[in-house]
Specification:
The complex is a heterodimer of chains A (about 290) and B (about 325). Chain A is mostly beta strands and about 290 residues long. Chain A is about 5% helix and about 60% strand. A 14-stranded antiparallel beta barrel of chain A has the order 1-2-3-6-7-8-9-11-12-13-14-15-16-17. A two-stranded antiparallel ribbon of chain A has the order 4-5. Chain B has three helices and 22 strands. Classes of the chains: A mainly beta (about 290), B mainly beta (about 325). Chains A and B meet through strand 4 and strand 10 of A and strand 15, strand 21 and strand 22 of B.
């Protein structure tokens, strides 16, 4: 039974921060889920695969593997952006650019599974390479975050042990770093993000709450206002509207415990001025 | 003898066909600015110059299209009598299909017969209070439905002088090869029953448009423009250091150009300007002014929407 304790850490936190954050941006390549393997799980290992269709009609493939060591989680994420269309350089060459990113993340929870007040930290080092065929550029950046949860969420086969947080908030700085090209440095587009969720209505097995995700960056700002419906501990529906960029997203997730394994499926659909995007994520914990 | 007759008839037919085909200006995209570009040519699709009443307020119609819009150039007299307090009324009626309205939306003593229009573009001008407005209506379910006022990008009128309008072909529901019919008429005072003049001319016109009118004469026009899949042709979209983004405009028009992120967030507006067909345009690193990455340059032109992905490495 203990094996299932703490799974909801991943489910909720991944959904709230990781996937939620991916969906907010309709991309995962730069936004490795902050809380992907944040908390201690009985499942020592996990692996996930993400397929993302961007509004620009480009596709992104993303995979993450993680390991739990006590209250610390370590993970590696690798993503590849497949760009469609013609790219013509001054030399007249038509190339297909490659954009590969690698992130190494660490997260730590201060507290135990029975704690009512929990603080979590996240940090990651992000490396990326953009190759246009004739020119290559490298990037190095750092992401850090600090978050509070009133209850550490857990999931169990025994329904009595299912727990969900009601209040959580936090902040993060993402992609603080620089690009390197021909020995010259340039700042990467960074973002300072906020996070607030409060579930204050309970109706039978449903919890209903509001979400707020403000974000400030050097080239783009976002303000997501949303509602979230949580059924028991393993089914989520949410809708979020980006008031600054006129985008709307609908997210669903379901987690299925199977004896020694947990399968989590996430689907998101978003509409922006440029078109629509979808994301499909399957995660295995074992 | 019979053969000679047939040949003469054939030659006459070809000559007539040539004359009819040569009426319309070439397929092009005029700028809506009240100025007649050389491409309009010197032969109007229809004329009524010298006919009608009240200073010959309707003189000619030039018509063309570019596969996206229908363009009409016409003469507009405006309100000739400020002291009567009423507006002058210039109307362009377009017939695109079977059926349509058999009366003018404002004066039910102005009737249509034979050809029943589906769309009405009306232009008011009141010299007393300076009011100008141009509105589009569609015949739907037995009545004239108001679709909206045309904006400055869609019409321009010099009063008195040249007026130009453009209407999306998607709004009219027509495409290449479709024949439509058009008439322009003028009402001296909006409160009067009939018309003072029209192009092509309709003999029921009356001085100061006081008598009821029956409009039967329209000019035919066939849509000729192709719809290109891409308004923009990429010349260079891998931009390094001081190089510039380079593209070619396939179709002229007023383009709203913005830069977006791949996630669909508008990052900045570049310009909203008229771009010329066949012209190369470039965007310098100073104009882009972003950190390195992959972005999308979006071109909105009327109902068309073109996107260019570009890589920018400073």
């Amino acid at each position: 039974m203990k094996k299932f304790i703490g799974l909801l850490f991943t489910i909720f936190l991944t959904y709230s921060y990781g996937v939620g954050k991916i969906i907010e941006n309709q991309k995962s390549i730069e936004d490795e889920p902050l809380f992907y393997h944040l908390l201690g799980k009985s499942y020592k290992y996990s692996a996930s695969f993400v397929f993302l269709k961007l509004p620009s009609d480009d596709y992104e493939y993303n995979t993450t593997v993680g390991i739990l060591l006590g209250n610390d989680n370590f993970s590696i994420n690798l993503s590849y952006l497949n760009l469609n269309g013609e790219f013509i350089s001054s030399e007249g060459n038509v190339n297909t650019p490659n954009n590969i990113k690698l992130s190494i993340s660490h997260s730590h929870i201060f507290g135990s599974k029975n704690s009512l007040n929990n603080l979590a930290t996240f940090s990651s080092i992000n490396l990326d390479n953009l190759d246009s065929g004739s020119t290559s550029m490298y990037g190095v950046s750092l992401s850090v975050g600090l978050f509070y949860f009133d209850t550490l969420p857990t999931i169990s086969i025994n329904e009595n042990e299912n727990k969900s947080y009601n209040l959580s908030f936090g902040t993060a700085i993402e992609n603080l770093g620089f690009h390197i090209k021909n020995g010259k440095l340039e700042n990467i587009n960074f973002q300072i993000k906020g996070f607030f969720e409060y579930k204050f209505i309970t109706f039978r097995e449903w919890n209903i709450g509001i979400t707020l995700y403000p974000s400030y960056g050097n080239i783009k700002n976002e303000l997501f206002l949303g509602i979230k419906l949580v059924y028991l501990t393993n089914f989520n529906i949410s809708a979020r509207y980006d008031a600054l960029n006129n985008r709307i997203f609908f997210d669903n997730s379901i987690s299925i415990p199977l004896d020694r394994y947990l399968i989590k499926i996430l689907y998101s659909f978003g509409i922006s001025q440029l078109g629509s995007g979808t994301m499909f994520n399957v995660e295995f914990d074992f | 003898m019979k053969i000679a007759c047939v040949k003469k008839l054939t030659v006459s037919f070809l000559f007539l066909t040539f004359c009819i085909l040569s009426f319309s200006a070439p397929v092009f995209t005029p700028k809506i600015d009240g100025i007649k570009e050389a491409q309009w040519g010197d032969t109007p699709d229809a004329t009524s110059e010298g006919e009608g009443f009240d200073n010959d307020p309707c003189k000619y119609l030039y018509i063309t299209d570019d596969g996206y819009y229908l363009y009409i150039l016409y003469w507009y007299q405006g309100d000739q009598n400020a002291s009567d307090g009423g507006s002058a009324h210039n109307v362009i009626a377009i017939d695109t299909k079977e059926g349509g309205g058999n009366y003018d939306p404002w004066r039910n003593q102005t009737k249509f017969s034979n050809t029943l229009p589906d769309f009405i573009i009306s232009s008011y001008h009141n010299a007393q209070n300076g009011l100008k407005d141009i509105q589009l209506r569609k015949w739907e379910n037995g009545t004239w439905k108001f679709l909206g006022s045309l904006g400055e990008d869609d019409h321009y009128e010099n009063i008195p002088g040249i007026g130009e309008i453009k209407i999306p072909l998607t709004t009219l529901g027509v495409g290449k090869g479709k024949e439509i019919k058009i008439v322009q008429y003028y009402r001296y005072n909006e409160n009067n029953a009939g018309i003072s003049d029209s192009t092509p001319y309709n003999p029921s016109a009356s001085p100061q448009s006081t008598s009821p009118a029956n409009i039967v004469n329209f000019v035919s026009y066939t849509i000729r423009g192709n719809t290109e899949a891409n308004n923009i042709k990429i010349i260079r979209n891998v931009v390094k250091e001081n190089e510039k983004l380079l593209f070619l405009i396939n179709y002229p028009g007023t383009y709203e150009i913005s830069i977006y992120s791949l996630e669909g967030i508008k990052i900045k507006d570049i310009t909203n300007t008229y771009l010329i067909q066949g012209q190369y345009y470039e965007l310098s690193p100073t104009e882009i002014n972003l950190s390195s990455g992959i972005y999308i340059l979006r071109f909105k032109r009327g109902d068309t929407d073109s996107k260019i992905k570009f890589i920018y490495m400073r």
